[in-house]
Write a structure and sequence with these properties.
This protein is α/β, with parallel strands linked by helices. It has eight helices and four strands. It is globular, with a radius of gyration of 19 Å.
């Protein structure tokens, strides 16, 4: 019988795509038998991005604004934000959204790693860039409440109408958010 901590690690690794129960167990056993400093370095330096090195090229880029951190759900979301060309800060990947019905609690996400980053780095603004579904809204509100503190600005990306579409194609919620998130011209 494996210790509870290894069983929990195996369960977390088993949630990764393409990792079955046996592979998750082998990876977990390898990690707990690996040099502690190496495992700690891996946990401390990764933002969750798709990368072959740690820190990732975005976090390692000195031209990036280290005071602004964009929170995304999945690593591939970084690509979408990067394609927009409108963000020059750093990223943090949560690895999902809070969804009690699907068995995803805050402890299952990379929220503790975010807390650690806030303690280590000079972050002045968190931009929450999650979807507008129920789980995305719940996760955004949870993060905003949990990380509310002096000298930390917490914002959420605006939601509104897609470019090139008309009002007749917008649902009520999207139109309401577009009106609420309006800004002066």
């Amino acid at each position: 019988m494996l210790p509870e901590s290894i069983t929990e690690l195996t369960g977390a690794l088993g949630k990764l795509p393409g990792i079955g129960p046996r592979s998750a167990e082998r990876i977990a056993l390898h990690l707990v038998q690996t040099d502690t400093a190496l495992v700690r370095h891996l946990a401390d330096t990764t933002c969750g991005a798709l990368t072959e090195k740690s820190p990732c090229p975005i976090c390692d880029d000195p031209r990036r604004d280290p005071a602004i951190l964009c929170i995304v759900e999945r690593a591939v979301d970084i690509l979408s934000v990067e394609k927009s060309g409108g963000f020059r800060g750093k990223f943090h990947v949560l690895g999902g959204k809070i969804s009690p019905l699907d068995g995803v609690d805050p402890e299952d996400l990379r929220i503790n790693e975010l807390e650690d980053r806030l303690g280590r780095e000079s972050i002045q603004e968190i931009i929450i860039a999650l979807g507008t579904d129920v789980e995305g809204d719940a996760t955004s509100f949870y993060l905003a409440k949990r990380f509310q503190r002096p000298n930390l600005k917490i914002t959420r990306i605006a939601h509104g109408l897609p470019a090139g579409s008309g009002l007749e194609y917008a649902d009520e919620l999207t139109l309401s958010r577009a009106l609420t998130g309006r800004r002066e011209m």
